[in-house]
Amino acid sequence: MSAPQFWDKIADKYSKQPVRDMDAYEQTLDRTRTYLGPQDRVLELGCGTGTTALKLAGNVGSILATDVSTRMVEIGREKARAEGAENVQFAVADVLENPAGEEQFDVVLAFNLLHLLPNADEAIAHVATLVKPGGVFISKTVTTPGRKMPRFMRLMLLVLPVMQMLGKAPFVKFRSQDDLHKAIERAGFKILETGNYPSAPPNHFVVARRV
What we know:
Largest sheet: 7 strands, mixed
Strand content: 15-25%
Number of helices: 7
Strand order of the largest sheet: 3-2-1-4-5-7-6
Structural class: alpha/beta
């Protein structure tokens, strides 16, 4: 099953699920807002059903929210219409595309996305072409907790291949925070801030400026 098919299949159920750790989510939003300006043009990759884009819409000029799932994007558009969020647009697009053509953005967001990509380094390098010089790339992704990996995570990794074969889990690849930082820096960014929201398993938040 392809990634678009998987996410289309679970989109309606996904849209009804509450945020697992609201405190960590709100902390992520608060830190992100400090890097946003009222005139900024923002691109969100892997937007899902648009919850984050809509929560940040009041802090920026406009947001283009993209996802590989047609159904996720449909739900996002429905939510935007219901909320009257006229500065949020949605588009179906792969992470290696630019749905805005040659346009570059002040900010590119990628939350809970990079660990779901088989081509994460290529995607990060592509992000550098999407961000204006001096603009920022803000991401948050689950990373490996190292030797102190929680038992539930070890069990999850054991059953993951079976779940993927049954079409009940997407592609997943965790990496160390150091490895992630190096990939972002190789793409031409300078890391400004990091954090873990939540800390276990570490969902690693990174803000990086294009140099």
